[in-house]
Amino acid sequence: MGGLLLALAAGLLFALGLLLSGMAQPAKVIGFLNLAGLAQGEFPGAWDPSLAFVMGGAVMVTLLAFRLTPPKPSQPQHRPWFSSRFELPRQERIDAPLLQGAVIFGVGWGLAGYCPGPALATLLLGGRDVWLFVPAMLAGMWLARRMAR
User: Fold this and answer.
1) What is the pTM (predicted TM-score) of this model?
2) Where does the source fall among the domains of life (predicted)?
3) Tally of domains within the chain
């Protein structure tokens, strides 16, 4: 039960961060991804660089977390505080399914202005667009799993 409460607290904190940072505002995300806005010559123009700071902060936290992860996380004395083991990626090579998934993710994010985290965070707050996006996202996840078999 304690693990579920901890997961709920972490999820709520993550959702709050997404909402406060603007990552859950599709117009802001699309403004950030609109690199053509750089060429328009006006500043501030159609490109919104503010989410670069959010992403930069996330990358720095992730780099620090991976740096603090012990080199041999399978040993019992090296484990996370609230789990029996570290959940690290097992695949180290970049393959076609990874690249295809990245392209599909990027196109979907650019078209809709949502990615999975912000979409779920705004489900109760968002408008009709998020209610159209989430079922499409879930269908895509289901289809990807089915095709991987």
Assistant:
1) 0.76
2) Bacteria
3) 1
